[in-house]
Structures are given as structure tokens and as C-alpha cells.
């Protein structure tokens, strides 16, 4: 599932091919990825003739701010990749993916190129929103916590909650209302780097441990963005050119059950709790 670093990689690729180019046509189907007004003809009315003025990201959401005749309208196209969503640009990958049977939304640009939103499992999301003010999130995203990659202190809200919460620290890292953009994979990686067990009750973390977690969060996500995100064995994550990411080669615990911990050699363990697999080193993490 694409997490913050994967969506940031997609955002950077999309910016190369779509910024300030007029959308000349838009094709969408009636699949469940479309929500609210995006599920109606309003989607084409909003998009055709508009251009993407700027491209933002908050957590795992991509936000394309639209302009019409050079005027920023406040309208935003919001995309979430869900479990298996991808964007593919004909200009960067060399061929159009518009005919792919899983292409639910295709945007055609004035230069003849197109960008397709492909999502075989259809857990992704396409919606329209409006920014209440410059830089403010549309109402449907207002519940999200600070962005894990871009916020100056991404774990500030999580730290507040952690003090009075006995739930596992990993569960808090995955709570998008506390910090947005971290999923199962990067939570495991940052907890190993911070030498904290995923199951550790949040309220038992002292200030130095929270500081370690904050540093691990910044480091892991920055390195993952640098390497274009992580593509796992199923290869469902690819960037907008169709290329795989390479941060998976740097994973210390995620997907490495039974393999030696890179720090101490102890076999990495996998444990299921909260409906998810957690990977950790029983010697390095406590
Ligand atoms: Zn270890």
C-alpha cells in the first residue's frame, strides 16, 4: 500500500508532466473509487478546461489545485491510491495506459499526453474538494494530523496523545488523525530505528524515547523519498513513469521475518496484532 514516501514520489513525477497544462478531456467510469461530486458529471465540468496550478500532498492524499484562465479557483482534485492505485503518464512511460481495463480516470492534456489513474482493487479514492483558505485542507481531509514528511514537528500531536494512552505506540503511528502518511511498513522501520517494540504501551515512552522516535520518523521517510519509495514483491507500487522504488533494499525489519537483524543478527520476528503484521528485533527493541 503506498504510504507518504510513495505518494510524494508520484507527486513529484506528476508535477513534471501536468503542472500548468490545460486539461482538454477527461474520462471516468462508474467505479466505486469516485466519491461525492466526483461520481457525477460535475467531475468533467470541473476538470475540462482547467489546469493544475499546484500539486500538494498531505499524508497519503495527493491534492491538485485547479486554475481556470490563470485564476486559482480553490477547487482541488483529491486522489488517494488506496491499496493498489497508480498514476501513469504517457509522456514519462512512453505509452498511454488509458486503455488499461483498470484505468478509472484518464486526464488528457493540451500537449497530447495523458495521465491515467489505475486501480485494480479499487480501494483508491477520487474526489473533488474546495480549499477554505490558501494552504488549508479541504473539509474531507480536515481530520488528518500533521503531514509525516513535511510538517516541522510531525509527531507533536501523537506525542500529546501518547502521554495519556495505553495503546501500542505502533497503533498511534498508524492513526492518520495523529500523524498523516505513515503505514504499516514505515511504522515498523521507524520503530526498529528508534529501538522501540511496536507493542510498547505509548504512555510508557519517556521523553528521550519519543525524541528517538521523532528522529527515526524523519530519517526513514526522508531516505525513502530519496530512493523513490518502496516496491515490495508484489510490485504494485510503481511511480508515474512505471519505475519501481528502491527503498525496500534498505528495509531493516519489514518483510524480513526469520532473517538476521542487520544490527545484532537475531532473527527478525513477525507478530500479528491490531489485524496487522509487525516486524521487529526482539533483542534491539524494547
Ligand atoms: Zn537486532
Question: Summarize this, please?
Answer:
The chain is α+β, with helices and mostly antiparallel strands.
Structure description:
Helix content is about 25%, strand content about 20%. It is an alpha+beta fold. The strands form 3 sheets. Strands 1-6-7-5 form a 4-stranded antiparallel β-sheet. The protein has a 4-stranded antiparallel β-sheet with strand order 2-3-4-8. α6 (about 185-195) crosses α7 (about 205-225). The model has no long low-confidence stretch (mean pLDDT about 95). The chain has 2 domains: about 5-140, MutM-like, N-terminal (N-terminal domain of MutM-like DNA repair proteins, Alpha-Beta Barrel), CATH 3.20.190; about 155-280, Orthogonal Bundle (Helicase, Ruva Protein, domain 3). It binds zinc ion. Zinc ion binds near residues 263, 266, 283 and 284.
| CATH first level of the largest domain | Alpha Beta
The gross shape turns out to be: globular
Total number of beta strands: 10
The percent of residues in helical segments reads: 10-25%
| SSE order, one letter for each helix or strand | HEHEEEEHEEEHHHHEE
CATH fold annotation of the largest domain:
N-terminal domain of MutM-like DNA repair proteins
Report the total helices. Answer: 7
Low-confidence blocks of residues: none
Radius of gyration: 20 Å
Strand content: 15-25%
Major beta-sheet overview: 4 strands, antiparallel
Please state the average pLDDT score.
Answer: 96
Give me the CATH superfamily of the largest domain.
MutM-like, N-terminal
Q: Between the first and last Cα atoms, what is the distance in angstroms?
A: 27 Å
Which architecture of the largest domain would the CATH scheme give at its second level? Alpha-Beta Barrel
Number of domains: 2
Amino acid at each position: 500500500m503506498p504510504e507518504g514516501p510513495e505518494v510524494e514520489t508520484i507527486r513529484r513525477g506528476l508535477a513534471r508532466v501536468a503542472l500548468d497544462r490545460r486539461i482538454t478531456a477527461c474520462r471516468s467510469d462508474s467505479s466505486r473509487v469516485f466519491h461525492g461530486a466526483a461520481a457525477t458529471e460535475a467531475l468533467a465540468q470541473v476538470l475540462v478546461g482547467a489546469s493544475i496550478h499546484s500539486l500538494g500532498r498531505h499524508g497519503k492524499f495527493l491534492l491538485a489545485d485547479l486554475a481556470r484562465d490563470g485564476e486559482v479557483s480553490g477547487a482541488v482534485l483529491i486522489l488517494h491510491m488506496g491499496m493498489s492505485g497508480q498514476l501513469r503518464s504517457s509522456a514519462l512511460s512512453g505509452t498511454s495506459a488509458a486503455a488499461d481495463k483498470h484505468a478509472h480516470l484518464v486526464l488528457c492534456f493540451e500537449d497530447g499526453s495523458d495521465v491515467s489513474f489505475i486501480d485494480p482493487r479499487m480501494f483508491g479514492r477520487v474526489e473533488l474538494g474546495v480549499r477554505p483558505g490558501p494552504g488549508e485542507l479541504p473539509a474531507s481531509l480536515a481530520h488528518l494530523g500533521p503531514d509525516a514528511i513535511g510538517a516541522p514537528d510531525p509527531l507533536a500531536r501523537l506525542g500529546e496523545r501518547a502521554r495519556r494512552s495505553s495503546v501500542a505506540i505502533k497503533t498511534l503511528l498508524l492513526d492518520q488523525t495523529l500523524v498523516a502518511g505513515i503505514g504499516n511498513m514505515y511504522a515498523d522501520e521507524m520503530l526498529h530505528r528508534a529501538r522501540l517494540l511496536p507493542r510498547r504501551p505509548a504512555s510508557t515512552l519517556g521523553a528521550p524515547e519519543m525524541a528517538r522516535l521523532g528522529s527515526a520518523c524523519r530519517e526513514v521517510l526522508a531516505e525513502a523519498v530519496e530512493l523513490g519509495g518502496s516496491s515490495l514483491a508484489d510490485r504494485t507500487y510503481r511511480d508515474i513513469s512505471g519505475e519501481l522504488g528502491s527503498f525496500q533494499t534498505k528495509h531493516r525489519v519489514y518483510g524480513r521475518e526469520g532473517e538476521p537483524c542487520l544490527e545484532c543478527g537475531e532473527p527478525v520476528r513477525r507478530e500479528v496484532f491490531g489485524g496487522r503484521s509487525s516486524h521487529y528485533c526482539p533483542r534491539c527493541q524494547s
